[in-house]
Amino acid sequence: MSGLWVQSERLWNPGVAAYQMHEMLEAARDKIEKQSSEADAKIMDPIIQSVINSTTRDVMQKGAIVMIIFESLSLYGAYLMWNLKKRGFYLYLTGIAVAFFGSLLVVGGWLGVFTAIAGVLLSSVMCIVYAFNLKHLH
């Protein structure tokens, strides 16, 4: 539920979200430079710079739309599963697919990869737990 709120803020205030993302990435870059070897920092710096460059208002809005769709499908799917409806599981899977492919195709680049991974990671774990209990749904 909080994911919907966060994505709504990103949708309506993409400039603020882009600025916050820039700040977070700059802090991560500084931390990597201080704690990692020079070779690791040289590998990560272009990736982080690529994400920073692609973090624009437009990209943040598109990403927020994809993630709102994902969050809505997942939440409604979980609601249906709570009511023992098997189609909720498939709706939940659809939400995961939207998060993954939508992030890669709509957002694109390294930012799309990171968004896809973040969106799918916890949901995939939950999907496995739901799959074990699929026999109880009708």
In short:
The protein has about 140 residues and is mainly alpha-helical. About 90% of the residues lie in helices and about 0% in strands.
How would you characterize the overall build of this protein?
There is one protein chain. With about 140 residues, the protein is an all-alpha fold. About 90% of the residues lie in helices and about 0% in strands. It is elongated and about 55 Å long. The mean pLDDT is about 85.
Key structural traits:
88% helix, mainly alpha, elongated, 6 helices, 138 residues
Question: What is the secondary structure topology, with strand pairs?
Answer:
Blueprint: H1 2-12, H2 14-35, H3 38-54, H4 57-82, H5 87-107, H6 109-132
Helix pairs in contact: 1-2, 1-4, 2-3, 2-4, 4-5, 4-6, 5-6
Per DSSP, what share of the residues sits in E-state strands of 2 or more residues?
under 5%
- Any low-confidence stretches, pLDDT <50, length ≥5? none
Distance between the termini: 25 Å
Shape: elongated
**Strand count:** 0
Total of helices: 6
The helix/strand order is HHHHHH
Largest β sheet strand count, sense and barrel closure: none
- Return the structural class: mainly alpha
Helical content band: over 70%
Mean pLDDT: 87
- What integer value in Å does the Rg equal? 17 Å
